[in-house]
Amino acid sequence: MADTWTDAHGHEHPKHELSHYAKRIYAIRALLIEKGVLTDKDIQCQIDYQEARSPANGAKLVARAWTDPAFKERFISDPKAACAEMGIDATAINEFVVLENTEKVRHMVVCTLCSCYPRPILGRPPDWYKSFNYRQRAVADPRGVMREFGLELPDDVEVRVHDSTADIRYIVLPLRPGGTESWSADELEKLVNRDSMIGVMDALSAIPA
Amino acid sequence: MNSATSRFNAGDRVRVKFEDRPGHIRTPWYIRGKTGWIEKAYGDFLNPESLAYGRDGLPKKTLYLVAFNQRDIFSEAEGSQDKVLVDIYDHWLEPVA
Question: What pTM does this model have?
Answer without folding.
Answer: 0.88
